[in-house]
Amino acid sequence: MADYRAPLGDMRFVLNNIVDLKALAALPGLDAAEPELVDAVLEEAGKMASQILDPINYSGDRTGSRLADGVVTTPPGYKEAYRAYVEGGWNGMPFDPEYGGGGLPWAVTLAAMEMWNSANLAFSLCPLLNQGAIEALEAHGSDELKATYLAKMVSGEWSATMNLTEPSAGSDVGALRSKAEPRGDGTYRISGQKIFITYGEHDMAENIVHLVLARLPDAPPGTRGISLFVVPKFLVEADGSLGRRNDVRCVSLEEKLGIHGSPTCVMSYGDEGDCVGYLLGAENKGMRCMFTMMNAARISVGLQGLAIAERAYQRALAFAAERRQGRTPGMPATESAAIIEHADVRRNLMLMKSQVEAMRCLLYVNGAALDAARHHPDPAVREARQALTELLTPISKAWSTDLGCEIASIGVQIHGGMGFVEETGAAQYYRDARILPIYEGTNGIQAIDLVGRKLPMLGGETVRELIAEMRATAEALSGAGGDLGAIADPLSRAADVVAETSDWLLANMANDPNAGLAGATPFLKLFGYALGGHFLGRSALAANAALNGGAGNREQLEAKIVTARFYATQVLPQVDANRAAAMAGPELLFAIGADALAS
Amino acid sequence: MADYRAPLGDMRFVLNNIVDLKALAALPGLDAAEPELVDAVLEEAGKMASQILDPINYSGDRTGSRLADGVVTTPPGYKEAYRAYVEGGWNGMPFDPEYGGGGLPWAVTLAAMEMWNSANLAFSLCPLLNQGAIEALEAHGSDELKATYLAKMVSGEWSATMNLTEPSAGSDVGALRSKAEPRGDGTYRISGQKIFITYGEHDMAENIVHLVLARLPDAPPGTRGISLFVVPKFLVEADGSLGRRNDVRCVSLEEKLGIHGSPTCVMSYGDEGDCVGYLLGAENKGMRCMFTMMNAARISVGLQGLAIAERAYQRALAFAAERRQGRTPGMPATESAAIIEHADVRRNLMLMKSQVEAMRCLLYVNGAALDAARHHPDPAVREARQALTELLTPISKAWSTDLGCEIASIGVQIHGGMGFVEETGAAQYYRDARILPIYEGTNGIQAIDLVGRKLPMLGGETVRELIAEMRATAEALSGAGGDLGAIADPLSRAADVVAETSDWLLANMANDPNAGLAGATPFLKLFGYALGGHFLGRSALAANAALNGGAGNREQLEAKIVTARFYATQVLPQVDANRAAAMAGPELLFAIGADALAS
């Protein structure tokens, strides 16, 4: 099996040319992100990925996490890897230095996370969820809660979980039934069962901080009656030391299609009537806190789509370079070619490569928008960047995770029969990737969020600005002419389709919500493909400028232009392919009755 | 878990309206296919599927086939199911009554096979391979070989395997190294190792007839030096009884992503220097025999794509009708809707349904063309039908198996978190389906076969005829107007794209074989989507005619028209999405050097 290799070259290209890291590092509070430090950090993060996390990825899948007597044992090597991760200070990268964080931008943190997730998706889920919980605590926690939990969570000594789902409350969070009763001392008695709790119990951290959604007595129905609670596995004494075990336990693990290393727990709260929880944020305002947590997590899950795609690409590429089968046109019958020389295999590799690079731009830009929304000195810019990061988040999550699955599948295909055999490792990525379009809000939910909440934001201004940027990119490409000029037309056409479909949705949703719901997924898809074309178009322009200036790695820069042209020809037409569906409305979806669908 | 339900209504619709079963039954030798008999046969085949094969599908996946001391034990219930299958006479359905076959058309046999494969893909692979071997023996076997083997193989008492692949000879069959030396008595001494041999060893049949590709001493290199041999597990005595064990054994089983019930064997021939084989066909003409075998198997594997998609659809539909989450627009906050009422879920279900029905048409038509090629009294019609079945086969195989994977993935998605948990069963289809684009010639190989061999057949006449048929369908739809008229334009446009791309490929391949190889997969995809639109358009026309005539099941007929319209809007644009890629040529594929791809 090919070892994981950190794609630092492309990461730097994206951070410097698409994200504008220099501008980001100039913002107050982000000055840690000076170029040499970022370079060094990413190089070390890459070593963490390739030397520590990658070697236990396949074995962790084979062993899986196990539950016995309430104790979850993670696969061999996980505990040691987590210790190295905490000792390296990796967990705190993007967080407030006040709590021991590194104060680095999310744009840079995402690059590091990409490598860890490429190397070991199942392992990296644990810190991923921890991050979301830290965000929620930072934003909504009382001074006391922050003082008690944040430093340990930022360091990673304590991990954290998100407890939303119950058997009858999945996408419909508002249907949850877990209870929280005031105990009279400011704390709450928590009871109920939660399912699909990732790393709900494990042996890697000293303590586990569960963030649990529950209802107070007499809370209003639905999402307006939900509160969020901090429920530690071990209660924390006044001096910060760990006290007694709280009344919370893992009662079973799910047997899953993939990410076997990661324990997916059924958690039971308050079986003995003594589960202590601490209110986080205001009563009945739990959904707001949860969204803070989920927004960070949704970008991160989108990143996982990119990460697994990059890993699948690397493995397929290594296999294609080694495996010899058949001959290229004109080759003597006595010879055989590495399959990478076959046009059809090469096409598959280019599909992987171009979409990976497009996703990388989208994800890092999404992270950079979040950074600017928090750190820019101008409130108007902060508002605009906040709107941008919110708009991009569902696209990052859904488009990148759908592609993660598709690209992992191409990876299996390039392996031929060996791809279907588990020992090759390609099949693991295909299995692992499949959770990504589901968790942290299914991709259908993301599409509804995009169309229902994000598209109408600021009167549609954020989308209009993005479309204007796409058109400006197309114009610049057209101006550059030559190989770049060939990208201009398809990109310009893609921008037109985004404009046309978003106008149609805004106009029609007002009268018929189902018009938006029916077109949501095709719209998200075409928006994602169009953004990919836009970012690769900008990449080609930047590469062209560098080539003309004689700067940089010539091979890499020329490849950027080829990749953008390939994407424009072979991938970007997906924008058009989703156009009619985005504007089709609900008529045909409901024209066959539910019963008749089965006949 | 929802039980499998035979989709007899749609099968009859396709057989009567798209295949024209009545015309088929009028051909000499196919008179067994009279409507009442076919109805009864399919109903019974459906019971075999739902009552016997479906109940052991999930458990068979959990248990898997096991190897111990050279003996392969299939999962509980497999042996009994196979006995019922043989006793029911199912194995012989399409074969010559002279050897105990049923003399039914392939078009009808495929409908029965669809149900068995929907119910249990892993089990149904065994008879599928048996069929290919029977075809090869019927076409190329000596009278003695036929007399010795055919009746037992047609009944299914003996199963059969196809032994092509070796560790260094996968897609490149010509690279194989297994040897066959004349023993001086007309038989051959076989030696070598074969991998990925499906049902190479098992406990369901009395004997296993291996068809093995090997090289004679001093055979020419490559595919022109390959011969095919019959190598029985037990030698057959003159009186037809089983004699001594032949020197062939299963040395290990692969650990696979899916189809766990089906043993995938590493087979070793002649470890003790005493493996007896019988030449099938002429020396060094093994590839020709193998193609006979593979062509039948390729249609059948395409059918497996349809079958797994149908099963995934049924399960997702049942889940969506039961699972309640959230509310539809306007629903009171105290209520909750079955998720089938949500537009985005309904869109996914319609994607599944419409593409399943399109595939069903393609596969049965492909089978019917094979029937006519063999049974039509007019040699000119036979030739045309032969060309048609050969043209359609790679599309059936590749397009349907890619869709099988995609639709199984949509099935997982509709289940949300439950889809990722193995106990739901949706994940099994996702895993099982993934082998289909790989075996019996990867889908890349199919595309190359389509472009390189099939497209140029008869000077491109077969493709031109299909395009003319598509245009005639579009015209008829346009003439019908109303709801049907809306399908005409997209279909007409699709026919234009097929014409444009096939002309381009024919014109450019002559000078640059890589031009064809580069565009092969996008061309196959767009051809498949276009044919789907054509067949659903014809279905809509037939449904409309029946509705106007007041005949048939109104609900089913109206649904057919809706399904065709949905496909035209949401699926058919994939034709255009693959257009540019089909004609892009190889330039951008090879513009980045193999080394630079990794940087």
UniProtKB/TrEMBL annotation, chains A, B:
Residues 284-449 form the Acyl-CoA dehydrogenase/oxidase C-terminal domain. The keyword Oxidoreductase applies. Transmembrane segments: none annotated. It comes from the Bacteria. GO terms for molecular function: flavin adenine dinucleotide binding; oxidoreductase activity, acting on the CH-CH group of donors. Keywords: FAD, Flavoprotein, Oxidoreductase. It catalyses: 3-(methylsulfanyl)propanoyl-CoA + oxidized [electron-transfer flavoprotein] + H(+) = 3-(methylsulfanyl)acryloyl-CoA + reduced [electron-transfer flavoprotein]. It is an enzyme of class 1 (oxidoreductase). Residues 466-591 form the Acetyl-CoA dehydrogenase-like C-terminal domain. InterPro entries: Acyl-CoA_dh-like_C_dom, Acyl-CoA_Oxase/DH_mid-dom, Acyl-CoA_Oxase/DH_mid-dom_sf, AcylCo_DH-like_C, AcylCo_DH/oxidase_C, AcylCoA_DH/ox_N, AcylCoA_DH/ox_N_sf, AcylCoA_DH/oxidase_NM_dom_sf. Pfam families: Acyl-CoA_dh_1, Acyl-CoA_dh_C, Acyl-CoA_dh_M, Acyl-CoA_dh_N. Residues 79-157 form the Acyl-CoA dehydrogenase/oxidase N-terminal domain. Its cofactor is FAD. Residues 162-268 form the Acyl-CoA oxidase/dehydrogenase middle domain. Involved in the assimilation of dimethylsulphoniopropionate (DMSP), an important compound in the fixation of carbon in marine phytoplankton, by mediating the conversion of 3-(methylthio)propanoyl-CoA (MMPA-CoA) to 3-(methylthio)acryloyl-CoA (MTA-CoA). Belongs to the acyl-CoA dehydrogenase family. This is 3-methylmercaptopropionyl-CoA dehydrogenase.
